[in-house]
From TrEMBL:
GO molecular function, one term: alcohol dehydrogenase (NAD+) activity
Gene3D superfamilies assigned to the protein according to its UniProt record, in alphabetical order: 3.40.50.1970, Dehydroquinate synthase-like - alpha domain
Entry keywords, A to Z: NAD, Oxidoreductase
Protein name in UniProt: Maleylacetate reductase
Annotated coiled-coil segments of the chain: none
Similarity comment: family membership: Belongs to the iron-containing alcohol dehydrogenase family.
């Protein structure tokens, strides 16, 4: 269970300076996504003398070179705390800095990726992504301010929410997940499936954005507490090796992995059918198809020739999964996702 402090609500970002004071920090490094420039400027002003510097170039999958650059800035300004504002990339960089320096972290997420409540850090070196888990990686404070999610364009809103849904779905078919984790997962899936269409209908709906963000928080907790299976393994291998965009990749893979796995995970299928009010794979596929950007692995730029190699890598050391993972089965799933044709 995430043991940090969670502050939430519209305008909650104004509480960050108090949180820094509580930590006794004097020189804050802001780690910020470029998209959060305005919020970053406001935070820097609100921090006053406690503001030291901003590092504004986090990258997906935490490349170690970027961490080295940010570390140099942190050392130069003698930073003693980090405030990360942005999506999973900014929060990943914050974790990477924290484990190298021991600095406390305050995370202010602006997407639904969920990294802020997990003890997990994925880093990329020479094109290979490795994932480590340590309770010390999780930020001590998370500030959920739904107003910071209003700037997410339609495409990112949709794909990031499906990324969150994937955490909940995989927790539901983890046979070792606790009752508490299953409860989080059902609540997260319910929240995402009901709030996402409302948000997509009106991106500026703060109340619906708040519901979606809360569901994404619970989904992040699922990612922290459950064993992730084939879906996250595919996303890690494809994302880390080919640099494919994280949220879009999760969004397009999810219906295909659900189609593959749910036949072997009847309890998860029944719970998801209740919250989806029908066939959950269809519901998720319909949402994924609403994306105006790439919705197939082919459109995302993955060469057809890579599918077999990816399938073999995944099958050689599969993550725990309800259905046996063979290279042929994974290749079939990847081919369906590459073409965008859901197997019946
Ligand atoms: P991201 O942080 O890379 O952000 C995607 C893009 O959206 C960026 O250009 C960013 O600037 C922009 N953006 C972010 N918030 C925005 C907003 N509110 N409005 C407009 N634009 C905004 O993407 P992500 O999907 O949030 O995170 C992906 C990264 O996080 C990956 O590296 C992934 O591996 C990692 N991740 C890690 C964990 C974990 O537990 N360790 C969990 C989830 C994701």
């Amino acid at each position: 269970m995430y043991a940090g402090r969670v502050l939430q609500g519209a305008g909650a970002r104004a509480l960050v300076p108090d949180e820094i004071e509580r930590l006794g920090a004097q020189r804050v490094l802001l780690v910020a996504a470029p998209s959060s420039a305005e919020g970053t400027q406001d935070l820097a002003t609100a921090l006053g003398e406690r503001y030291a510097a901003t590092f504004g170039r986090p990258a997906q999958h935490s490349p170690v070179e970027v961490t080295a650059e940010a570390l140099a800035v942190a050392r130069e300004v003698r930073a003693d705390a980090i405030v990360a504002i942005g999506g999973g990339s900014a929060i990943g960089l914050s974790k990477a800095l924290a484990i190298r320096t021991g600095m406390p972290q305050v995370a202010v997420p602006t997407t639904y990726a969920g990294s802020e409540v997990t003890p997990v850090l994925g880093e990329t070196e020479n094109g290979v992504k490795t994932t480590r888990r340590d309770p010390a990686f999780a930020p001590g404070t998370v500030v959920y301010d739904p107003e910071l999610t209003l700037s997410m364009p339609r495409g990112l809103t949709l794909t990031s929410a499906l990324n969150a849904l994937a955490h909940a779905v995989e927790a539901l078919w983890d046979t070792e997940a606790s009752a508490a984790t299953r409860a989080y997962a059902v609540e997260a899936a319910d929240g995402i499936l009901s709030a996402l269409p409302v948000v997509l209908g009106r991106l500026s709906d703060v109340a619906a954005r708040a519901r979606l963000q809360e569901a994404a928080w619970l989904a992040g907790a699922c990612l922290a507490q459950a064993r992730m299976g084939l879906h996250h393994q595919l996303a890690h291998v494809l994302g880390g090796t080919f640099g494919l965009p994280h949220a879009e990749l999760h969004a397009l893979l999810l219906p295909h992995v659900m189609r593959f796995n749910l036949v072997a995970a009847t309890d998860a299928a029944a719970r998801l059918a209740r919250v989806a009010d029908g066939d959950p794979t269809h519901a998720v596929a319909a949402l994924a198809a609403m994306h105006e950007g790439p919705t197939t692995l082919g459109a995302l730029g993955l060469p057809r020739a890579a599918l077999r190699e990816v399938a073999e890598r995944v099958a050689a050391s599969p993550y725990p999964n309800p259905r046996p993972v063979t290279a042929d089965a994974v290749e079939g799933l990847l081919l369906a996702a590459w073409r965008g044709e859901l197997v019946r």
